[in-house]
Amino acid sequence: MASQVKVRFFTRDEDRELHCPGNPVFVPVSLKRYGLSEIVNHLVGLEKPVPFDFLIDGTLLKGSVEEYLVANGLSSEHSLDIEYTRAVLPPQFLASF
Amino acid sequence: ATALSSLRSWDEARDLWQHADEATREFTAGLCEQLRLILEPTVATKLRGDYKTGKRLNMKKIIPYIASQFRKDKIWMRRTKPNKRQYQIMISVDDSKSMAESKAVEIAFQSIALVSKALTQLESGQLSVVKFGETTNVVHPFESQFSAEAGAKVFRNFTFEQTRTDVRKLVETSLDLFAATKPASENLWQLEIVLSDGVCEDHDTIRRLVRRARENHIMLVFVVIDGIANTESILQMSQAKYVPDASGELKLQVDKYLDTFPFEYYVVVSEIEELPEMLASILRQFFAETGDR
Ligand SMILES: [Mg+2]
Q1: CB 3.0–4.6 Å: which of B78, B155, B188, B219 could bond B13 by disulfide?
Q2: Total-model pTM
């Protein structure tokens, strides 16, 4: 497995501010939700970072991109369409209210 | 895992060759002519030598000529013909799966056909074809004559199913192949044309190898096949990396993909029609900047 893979990020969010340019990005396959979130925030250019969740083919990404590729019998020669959505608030955040 | 790549059937390969041959027929003579202008030395050598007949008098010889009672009569200079350069030209083609994904397969086949036919017409030396992906393999050796049947044999080997694109290995292997076949001749030139979608990693290591190729007088040019236009183009692609900052902490850095592309001499081609002019221009640039050798 190579260390990088070609990815196209997209969102269905109605907020246009959250949309990023559609051109592909070469990203490390080791990244999980946090790293992908950082990249999308960079691409969207938000002033205040927004945490995102990621879906590939409608399935929530739990581990790293590499784990997803391996589990689905894909190589890093494939390009991935990855959907991002605003993350559901983490439990500890809710608990503080 | 080893890349156990299956071969296409002869029928399919011959069919593919025939299609690629037909699609590129109108460009072959043009590319051949452009390559002739670039690859063959055009500057005639200086007038030189002591001949009894020739093109121009050697003025330094006139006084000795008269003083010798016209016996020392080798007073003419001639223009000697430049030696014809011999080339070893390697076409290296990306056989990885991403080629199929990025719709670069058809144009890759057409490019192989076009370049190999033009070079065969040019009769400038030996031609080989190499495929690369996870592994690098010679599919047409320098020693063999190229023909339509050889073309079909080359096409049999390309299935675009390799699950890695190891460009580092390609450049290393090419250096070895060139070193192994180079006969002791100052007049032999070695040229490698890489055809690929351009997606590779380990740019820094590859850049060092590209420099070594140049030190070994191997002319290395890269043709990026950009199969998908618009937003999908490699020209628009970016690369996200984590790079350590001054304090050693990893920081996200997003660059244009081609900004770190390790090949100095590259062109981006999205239609086969563009290939002759693009290939000629990158070779011209190479010769202009490296001052022949
Ligand atoms: Mg590839």
Answers
A1: B155
A2: 0.85
